[in-house]
Amino acid sequence: MPRVLLMLLALLALPVQALELKPFSASYTADWKQVPISGTAGRSLKALDNGRWELDFEASMLVASLKETSTLRMESDAFLPLTYRFDRSGLGKSKQVELDFDWTEKQVLGNDRGEPVRFPLNRGLMDKSTYQLVLQHDVAAGKQSVSYQVIDGDEIETYDFRVLGEERVRTKAGLIDAIKVERVRDPTQSSRKTVLWFAKDWNYLLVRLHQVEKDGKEYQIMLKDGQVDGRTVKGLAE
Predict the structure, then answer these.
(1) d(CA 217, CA 44)
(2) How far apart are CA 111 and CA 128, in angstroms?
(3) What is the pLDDT of residues 187-212, one digit of tens each?
(4) Which distant-in-sequence residues (6+ apart) come within 8 Å of 174 by Cβ?
(5) Does residue 179 belong to any structural domain of this protein?
(6) Is residue 54 part of a domain?
(7) What residue numbers bound the domain in which 34 lies?
(8) Total domains in the fold of the chain
């Protein structure tokens, strides 16, 4: 048997990290350091009909709330966003965003705070929610640095991330072994900081997020409880 064919067969025998979507739901505590009141947050992924999935995130407290919803589908190994909705109220300016991804006409149409949005649509272009799911799967695949093209207002921005390493996170569900990831920004362009932790043993579910805004305001969500593919998340005992 030719050597090249033997090499190909050996490669085919290697395990491959499948981009398999699994439904999940998680609830979090939500804290704004400038506001002495804790809130709650929830994130979930559920299967719809015709191979579509819905990704939801909600956060609320006494003076503010936000809701973010994306629908998407998988095609081969690609994540294809279909719709994106964002609604924020209280604690600053309100904001509403609606985007529709038309893969037949290859365009994105919608509005951001009442202003029309239109972009040509190519594979790899994502909304501000779907890219987080892709990040979750790329971290699971062992990637150390990734970049995404994301619609952000009236522009297409490049979001860069890098893996910082492993870290054990103390949550209400117990100690969770996680992968720590940070958003990479040019410090001369933005002082914002975003760090995320994904659970290694729970399909890389988001267990913690910490963000510092340009004005110094800090926001954090921390896992309270969750389920992944019908299994209740249980951390290590302390």
Answers:
(1) 26
(2) 14
(3) 878 888 999 999 999 999 999 999 99
(4) 234, 235, 236, 237, 238
(5) yes
(6) yes
(7) 24-231
(8) 1
